[in-house]
Amino acid sequence: MNKSLFVLFIFFLFSSCQEEKKNFSSLPNFVPPETAIVLKTDDLKDFSKRLANNSFFSQVELSAQKKLQQKLVALEYVHANDESLLCFSMIGRDVFYTVITENKADLLPTDSLPNKMVESFQYGEQTIKKYTLEENVLYSVVLNGVFVGSGSKLIVENVIRLFNLGLEQNVHFKEIYASASGNASLFVQNENFRKFYGHFFPKGNPSFLKHFSGWTALDLEVEKNAIFLNGIVMEKAAAPTTLDFFKGVEPQENQLAQVVPLNATGFYTFTFHDFSVLRENILQKNNTELPEKLEGLFASANEIGSIYFPEGKAVVLNSKNVEQTKTALLSQLEIADEFRGQAIYNFSEKNIFHQAFSPLLNSRELNFYTRLDHFFVFAEKMEVLQNIIANFQNKSVLANQDYFKETAENLSGEASILLVGINENLKKNLAGKVAEKHQEEIKNLDLHGYQLSAMQFVRGDGFSHVNVTFQKNTGETAQNGTAQLMALQLENPLVGNPQFFEYWRTGEQYIVAQDEKNTLYLFDTDGELRWKKQLDGRILGEIQPVDLFKNTRLQMAFATPDKFYVIDRNGKDVAPFPVKFDEPITQPLSVFDYAGNRDYRFVIVQNKTVSMLDSKAESVNGFEFEVAKSSILQAPKHIRIGWKDYILIPEKSGKLNILSRQGKPRVSVEKKLDFSGNEWFLLRKKFTSTNAKGNLMQIDESGAISTEDLELSETHKIAVLGTTLVSLSENILTINEKELELDYGLYTAPKIFNIGDKTYVNITDTQASKVYLFNGKGKLLPGFPVYGNSTIDLGNLDNEGKLEFVVKGEDDSVLVYRVD
Predict the structure, then answer these.
(1) What's the pTM value of the predicted model, to 2 decimals?
(2) Spatial contact of 510 and 485, defined as CB atoms under 8 Å apart
(3) Are the CB atoms for 539 and 496 separated by under 8 Å?
(4) What is the pLDDT of residue 213?
């Protein structure tokens, strides 16, 4: 059985036997009670091939899929190419299939099958056959020339009993069955489907499906890079359905995607031309009175929806008359916060949307709101609104993405109800709803470029049109490839720059930051605080990853003015650290690993004094450079050229010490240098920095000095990595001789990243709070600049291929962005 047939919860049919005559022989008459899903196809083999060739389903492998495939193995032996039905039902806590098709002599050619066993027994007047094929069981009966086969004996017995009684089952299904016109069609009984949802997502709560509708009929079109479903929803159900609320309500343009951040899991929206018509329908179905104050707020709206995030959701009102909406909110103008120049107000009518729109909306605790253009956004949590504001200002919203526009082309522009899932984010949400043993495989599911899932309903008379699309993006990934994923809150203002720190077990990047009270924080990839640790002082420079025990389990090494620390991933000190020093440490910790074998040398600078320690915090014998003649300006730096190691130590006097591993002079630099404050780097096998006049200085291994006038300002900054030279002079950024003119501002020093085979360059304007990221050719990446206030750290947060970066946001927050 092709593995891809499981993933839509459908597929496959057929089995054999003899003929009988009765009052009815139409295939829908034999659909078992409580069936949730029915697949109808005119050519199963062709359909199976098309599904197997789909670029998503052909590569999906899930344990639940394999379990259901095993149940369907018996159907591999069925040879049928006429109209057939494959039904899925829940019995108890398990899923069972039933196949229904016209009986033919060669339907199940068992004579040629090895390892088979066929048994027969009576159920009333009917004969049930039990086929055991390669340890897989199929029960079957033939009724009026119709073959019914199932993995459940109980289902076959129920079908026989109803047949003998002459009871016509599933009347509504028979009506909607006639509406299907495609070679393959899918029918879903929405109430029964809730049981399926609960089976595969036991921790989920499919409240949206409750009384949503009766049967749904969908013609199924499978292409190599897409699956499209379109059809109708029949609204003849025992109880009032969700879609009944939209009777006489004209659908409007869906615009909510203009405020949906790329880090959302998805959104849900419904539209209406006149709130009074929708309200009347709700009153009739719910029989509840609504407060008069709702009139002013909702009369100006034509769209209401929810945006979903792991940390909560927001409710959005799309206003067609902003001034009217603002007037309705005049009593709700108490400012709770101001975020990036945007006012966030307290909202006292917390339950008003639930009163107005239940069960379409069930948000009962809307404490805050803000306005973004003609959208009024409400949320329970302040951080949800801050996230939406940040991404709206960064233009990191779904409506700007090419893949959303491509998906929208296959949908109606106006819909009564629209649901969109952002698949990469949604799978993490779904992982939390499955059994724990299956969570990792859901999180690691490769979506192969399928960015979105979308479903819409357009209300008609007596039925609703439905469209579903699940397609691979064929255009550019995005017009704006940057999305804010998280905002991590510290207890006090941040100091230094936030960093990534690799979790050795998974390769994921955790996030580490320090606040002004000297508390060190570690957050995991989901933004959860793992621990915080009180330090004695502020970390000098950056935290260095080390592997003291040579077992791939990384630790953090750094210095404060008084101590040298090494701590593990759990925030515990690694013995014999920390090491306390009597005199202040004046430069960041230097970590040398000469041969890449993790025999570390840790270098501590205290004004003029240099101490070199090993992994046991003991002084390294034989290191001769102990005291400089003047204050040391920078942390000592290790540079390797060929097989030779060099240690560079610049002094305030202008002397540049270039030493061997033993701390002995290795290169003699006779001339006093006018240091610019920039680090020393390796470029074209020469020690490279700049002087205070903005000239590039290079020193070769013989000590010869050469200079080049780069026409840089006195306050210039440079960075070098590999063959890439970057300089920033006032508002001119130069990347390998390509000049870029920026707005005037207060910029951080350039920082270069080499990740894979690509080069990235970051600078941040801390005056305008703008983060820039360029590629190695000097092209600004899509979506930049974005909001931020520090140098970034760039890496692969979740070890799933896309890049993320961390940066200081507000004074007390760390922002996490994704770069597509």
Answers:
(1) 0.79
(2) no
(3) yes
(4) 63
